[in-house]
Every structure is written in structure tokens, then in C-alpha cells.
Amino acid sequence: MVSCGWSPDGKWIFSGVNDKSISMWELDGRELECWKGQRTLKISDLEITSDGKQIISICRETAILLLDREAKVERFIEEDQTITSFSLSRDNRFLLVNLLNQEIHLWSIEDDLKLVSKYRGHKRTRFIIRSCFGGLEQAFVASGSEDSLVYIWHRGTGELVEALPGHSGAVNCVSWNPTNPHMLASASDDRTIRIWGLNNLSAKQKDIHGNGIHYSNGGT
């Protein structure tokens, strides 16, 4: 077993298994459903949408599977580069896809699958680097980087807003606070987790569609 995720109501667990299948389990260990489909790689990085209708997972080096549980329909995001990780937006409408070639792609998954934007600038050569949505109305995209910086882009324009110094090792993961849009956490190989926030409260009043966002040096 290489990945797992909870159903939104906490009643079931979904698992990605080495035999390339996805299973849904009762908490007592009873298997309820199993989807095999056409897969060529073990299932990794598995998520379930908040309505419980779609299971999303990396199913091949260059593809992400979107499985509709009710309609039993499979859709695929196909990339030209190896996919290393992905992140689902809170509204289930968008997916951030991290690639081996140091790009992050934003995909719309609500209806027809569509590549919306690309984000560049962060460094990735050896490690899995993760990104996330965040800020007011999730208007920003953040990512770790192997150059010890935390990168933040404007989600709509793709423009790099900030590259935050503070860590002394590769930043592997970032996570925006789900209730405070002005707070971001980053985890690094320097064995610290840093919490980032706005320098002053007046910055909260700035237009979320502008680049008026300023972060203080994260404290450990």
C-alpha cells in the first residue's frame, strides 16, 4: 500500500495499492469497492474531493487519474514531464501539478480538463517539492524549493510575488493555514518548520488581485 485518504465524512478509507488498484474500505477492514482500470504504475498521491465524488491520484509517471465514483468514469490529466506531486483546491475545481522540469501547472478539473497557468522560478533537482493554494480566496500559489526559499505566485497571472528567505536547507513542503489566509507554514531539511505572516495588519486591506503582499521572516 503506497497511499491513502479519508472520505469527507470520515466513514471510509481509500487506498492506492502496489497492484495498481484503488480500494475503498470500511474502518473494520472490510473492502467495499475496488477499481483497477488501465494503470501502468502504482497509485501514489491520492486525494478525495470534499463531496466524496471523485478520487484523484497519480497513476502513471506523466498522468493523473480523476475517477468519478458514482458515474464510474475515468478522466486523465496528461503531462509531457514526470509528475512528482499534486494539490487540490478547496473548492475542488483546480489542481496544482508539480513536475520534474521545475514547473507547476494549474489545471481546471471542474468540467473539461484544461491547463490554465504555469508557475516557474523555484528549484527542484533531487527531491519531491510540494505546493499549495492559499491566501484570500486562494488567490496565491506557494511552493517549497531546493534553494531554501519559499516561492509565492499570483494564481491568476502566474507572476512571482515573493521568494521568502529564512531556511538553510531545501524546503520540501508548504501549507497555508485553512482559517487564516495570512499565515503560511514551510517545512525544510534544516529540521525546522517556519510560520510566515504579514508584516502589518494594514496589508490585509490590499487588493487580493494585486501584488501587495509582504511576509515577515518566518519564526521556527
UniProtKB/TrEMBL annotation:
<dbReference type="InterPro" id="IPR001680">
    <property type="entry name" value="WD40_rpt"/>
</dbReference>
<dbReference type="Pfam" id="PF00400">
    <property type="entry name" value="WD40"/>
</dbReference>
<dbReference type="InterPro" id="IPR015943">
    <property type="entry name" value="WD40/YVTN_repeat-like_dom_sf"/>
</dbReference>
<feature type="repeat" description="WD">
    <location>
        <begin position="1"/>
        <end position="28"/>
    </location>
</feature>
<feature type="repeat" description="WD">
    <location>
        <begin position="164"/>
        <end position="206"/>
    </location>
</feature>
<dbReference type="InterPro" id="IPR051350">
    <property type="entry name" value="WD_repeat-ST_regulator"/>
</dbReference>
<dbReference type="InterPro" id="IPR036322">
    <property type="entry name" value="WD40_repeat_dom_sf"/>
</dbReference>
<keyword id="KW-0677">Repeat</keyword>
<dbReference type="InterPro" id="IPR019775">
    <property type="entry name" value="WD40_repeat_CS"/>
</dbReference>
<keyword id="KW-0853">WD repeat</keyword>
<protein>
    <submittedName>
        <fullName>Uncharacterized protein</fullName>
    </submittedName>
</protein>
<dbReference type="InterPro" id="IPR020472">
    <property type="entry name" value="WD40_PAC1"/>
</dbReference>
